[in-house]
Every structure is written in C-alpha cells, then in structure tokens.
Amino acid sequence: LFLPTHTSGDYHQLKSMRAFVVSFLCASALVALLLSTTVEAGFNPDRVKYVDSTPASSGMNNWLFRGDEPISSHTFQYDGLVAAMKAAAQAQVNLTMPDSFYLIDICLLNPSNYKDELVEKKFFEHNMNLGKYINHPVVGSGLPPALFNETARREHALNLDTKSVDKLPLNMQRLRNLLYTAESVPVVIYYHCSAGMDRTGEISGSYYMRWLNKTFQESLIYDDTAIEDRNIKIWSRNALQWYCYNLLYTGFAPDMNCSLPTEPNSHH
Question: Whole-prediction pTM value?
C-alpha cells in the first residue's frame, strides 16, 4: 500500500487510501492509550536515573532526570524524589547535586487516565518556592516505520513536527533549551510517566540520540533494561524509531542505523 508504484490515474485513490490507513492506525493507538489505566504501585526511587547536566563551563548548574510517578499513597514524594536524584547522580556519574534548586516536574501522562494528577499539581500550587508542575502528554505512534517504503518513510520522518502528536524534533530542542536556561538558582528537571519506562523511555531515548551521541540500538536497549527487564511498549518504540529516522534524514546523525536490535530483548 505504501509503495510509490502507482500511475497518474490511480495516484489520488491510493493517496486517499494511505491517508485513511494512517489516520486509522493513529486513531487506534491514541484510543488505546486514552483508555489505558495507570497502575498504582507507588514511587520507586530505583527507577530514577540521571540523564544530563550542564557543564561547569556553561556557568549554570542545571540537571535532567527521568523516572516514575513520584507519588505514593496519594502523596507527592518530594523528599524521596530529591534523595533518589542525588543518589542517581552520585552513582551514575559521580556528581553532587546542589542542596537548593528549583524543580520542574514534567508529567508525560494524559490527565484523563492519571488519577493523581491533582496531587502533583496541588503540591506545587502550595509550594511554589520549590518548583512547578507541567503536564505534557506523550502518546507514541501507532505506525511502525517498517510499514513504509523508503520514500514514504523519509517524507513522514522529515515532517514529524506536523505529522505526529509527540513532535519529538521540536520537543527535544525545547527540553535542551530548558536545561540550558540560566536562572537565579540551579534548575532540576524531572520528567516521568507512571512506571518511568514507556513514555519516559521514548523521551529519554530521543534525548540520548540527539544530545548524548547514543545510537538507536544503545538507546532502545537501555530503555529495555534500565528500569524493567522488558521491551518498552510498541507505540513508544515506534515513536523513538521514527525520531531516529528524522535524525538520519535531516543529517543530524547521517550514519545512524535505525533498524531494531535483537539483543538483549527481541523486538519483533
């Protein structure tokens, strides 16, 4: 269906059919995500991982972390989160976080199926001196890149900011800009979903590729093993793979291999 072998007589018909299939698959994935429920297991500090920080030469002292929902028993776990981030920075890169900072808490869950969103939001409404809460839902992609031939895959990948919900090229730049924004105090950015693996893995893997010079395979394997010993969900993997192709075709990573790895977990 996606092969560009049609003639001028059937071009518009096939184009319409392709648009229908794309719309149907996207809608199906979105509905599945919106109907999914968040499993309440409580904050797990072991899922908090250091991602990046500004170098001393930048004149800033800002930090970026990933993790799971920082809520247990309907209570925002601020002290536990701070302790977990400090421990992750020390264990992973032997760096010491500042004791005083402004926390930007970015939730990647859709509010419609995140029953503790008000807990997170109200915590910062009542503690504005500690930071702020941002809700930025991530949904992934219902379209595996393998469904497309090279021409169609390139066209879709180069237009992710208009053809995808998550707009990873735009949001990777925004996340980087946020990390490198100088404020009067150090800034710590913490982004999360529920388990800290799927939506969080999509954002993390994209950041690893764009800003930390990781390959697609390295990013995906880390996402599959750092939090739980399982593959990230297919819609998150699809979005990550689409962003890999975006980096390849735009020239940010001209040697990037966007094929799926088979080790240590099989991605079929």
Answer: 0.85
